[in-house]
């Protein structure tokens, strides 16, 4: 296996999210040799027909910046990653619209003007209040179609999520015995931070109907991402209200989605309030990973990109007309007409990866002094600036 054989990038933020991710692999592949430009350690393997590369953030590092660093290295090593999944835990935002419980799964899906993930703490303060600036990428169309299909299968009783959860070996990730309690927003935790709610007043719990089974439900909608841990239900509810109903709050997604489209899958481990503790984290990480695996089985392999390119013999480079008139970048002089336009339009998608691959193979005439990665960076830079 070479790095070019991997088409799915799976990113975990926490140590406890790695074991469930690894356990979802149908087979594990041998590790690659480390290169000087890439300090990440990867787990490689296969889920169904997809070759998957799993990376974690360095131990103790969380947040948007750390996620961006890890994935940009990963992207340089694995040039054919077609889509990205960010899989792990997050804080649930229960509302009248979504009856979210611990161990459920939240999935980012574009809603209205939002692309599935919104960085809630990024913007500027002006006399009218806080204005959110910048827009994140939408998940790729293939992932969005995958969501439609898996939802339909779940509606027809075909979920495999709990089967994958049940297959996890050992007791560490089993469903906790501690009761799933949601307290009223105005009621704060009594006792040490992170301790169980043994001293909290049960009169202040929100009355919710009992669920018939412990099966994890899946909630689709906007996920709010920020650099700050949200432990206040007032802030949680304010973020949700300002974004028009959020299903989950987490800390890494914006770091990935700034650069390329990804789908965020979060197991709900707390309610982003002062009562939050670690009890449900492992189980929530497992339900998220199980959903990710189930989703991958809905998505077909890209047949038209790499396999076709690989089987074609390399034609000899011949002179072609160049796009000197575009004025897009100094590099565009050396590329065939339209190449840079296509790359600019499709930055971060398999089409861009395919063009870069073609250039690297010498099929397209390009100035050998310019590494293809520079071309890629220029395209991404232009895309961001635009
Ligand atoms: Zn409490």
Automatic annotation (TrEMBL):
Annotated Nucleoside phosphorylase domain residues: 8-282
Q: Which GO terms describe its molecular function?
A: catalytic activity
User: Which Pfam families does the record cross-reference, listed alphabetically?
Assistant: PNP_UDP_1 (PF01048)
Q: Name one GO biological process term.
A: nucleoside metabolic process
Q: Which residues cross the membrane?
A: none
Q: Mind telling me what this protein is named?
A: Nucleoside phosphorylase domain-containing protein
What's the source species for this entry? Dactylellina haptotyla (strain CBS 200.50) (Nematode-trapping fungus)
